[in-house]
Amino acid sequence: MNNKIPTGYKKTEIGIIPEDWEVKRLGEVSKIVGRIGFRGYTKKDIVKPWRGAISLSPINIVDGKLNLKSNLTFVSWNKYEESPEIKIKTGDIIFVKTGSTLGKVAIIEKVVFPTTINPQLVIIKVFKRTNNKFINFYLNSFTFKNLLNKVLDGQAIPTLSQYQLSNLLLPLPPLPEQKDIAKVLSDIDNLIESLDKLIEKKKLIKKGAMQELLTGKKRLQGFKGKWVKMKLGEVFDIKRGASPRPIEKYITKKSNGINWIKISDVKPEDKYLVKTEIKITQEGAKQSVVVNYNDLILSNSMSYGRPYISKIKGCIHDGWLLLKRKGKQNIEFFYYLLSSYKVQKSFDLLAAGSGVNNLKIDSVKELSIYIPPTLEEQQAIAKILSDMDAEIEALKKKKEKYEQIKKGAMELLLTGKVRLKTINNGEGKNNDIEGETRKLLWNKKIRL
């Protein structure tokens, strides 16, 4: 094993870091404050929304960001004023110190309303001589998470005291490099956020297009004629799935096994079913209902009313309905039609009358729908919506790519394995942080 320390680096208690970096305790670069025990609060301190201050909890930290769109708790103004040391300020970092979500971290970009914390959180107030964004990125890194796991090993209920947190070690570059690293990672964050907004915008555009195109309110150029009212059972042969019992007897790992389609094999936003987790035997398949390539299936129990186009051959249990086309129909069009707001509301009404929310096959067969008078119009509508889906999917993949890039960049930049100092000019100023970071990360096989 090669234990040689690279030139310009040194060995420390937390590993090999650049020579001009320091090892500091978190408590040396910040003040950590939490809610004092006797100032905790009970149900009587909880007030109606906006009648008091926001009290942050772990649920308000989502993917390393503060989320105030939902799940807000409010405490009385008296309870808020009782603990001035934990009033949230811009630039603070909140950290979950106990429970199953211990280690969740977020920086406060802006205080929009008087805010405090609940007893599960602490506030890390970073001193001015240290960059708070750098600290936030480091606390969100895998390197730090691994350190936490070692400290918490064996605890039934994960808990980290403020003393333990303040004594955790971290690598700290000179302040200018902290700022440069935070700038690069913030730029990637901003790109991811802009992609998120663009994805949501495209989804809204698609939603509007569905409401117009799938109801006949807007007709595509070249098409005319009144849409036809039909029952779903007139367009499709509809059959409930079936399960061989006991199912465990028929599960197999053999190569000739038949795909066993479960709700968990697809996500709510999926359009296609492309694979299954398990397979059943040929004998089991004889006691079930076979789904062929390009068949439409519809969930009819629990998460009812979700349509999918199968891109594999398999079998379905009684939590699914199989919809087989009776004539020449465009399957993609019907996927979108069954996904539309109007049809989904109809499914809600059909399921509401039962003790357990599910769709009865006879009710589904009787469901009235309106469809274009020609196959060509179905195909044209489906193509427009499919193109929109493809654009959204491409943006999601691009976002996922940059999320992976960010993870890789964090592990390299926050530990000093990749230096931004190497691109500083003689005056200590940075000419092109982003461009040079691309080169450095490329050398590490991570594309930016």
From TrEMBL:
Keywords: Coiled coil, DNA-binding, Restriction system. It holds the Pfam family Methylase_S. One of its GO terms (molecular function) is DNA binding. Residues 385-412 form a coiled coil. Signal peptide: none annotated. Residues 18-200, 226-400 form the Type I restriction modification DNA specificity domain. InterPro entries: Restrct_endonuc_typeI_TRD (IPR000055), Restrct_endonuc_typeI_TRD_sf (IPR044946), Type-I_RS_S_subunit (IPR052021). One of its GO terms (biological process) is DNA restriction-modification system. Gene3D superfamilies: Bipartite methylase S protein, DNA methylase specificity domains. It comes from the Bacteria. Belongs to the type-I restriction system S methylase family. This is Type I restriction-modification system specificty subunit.
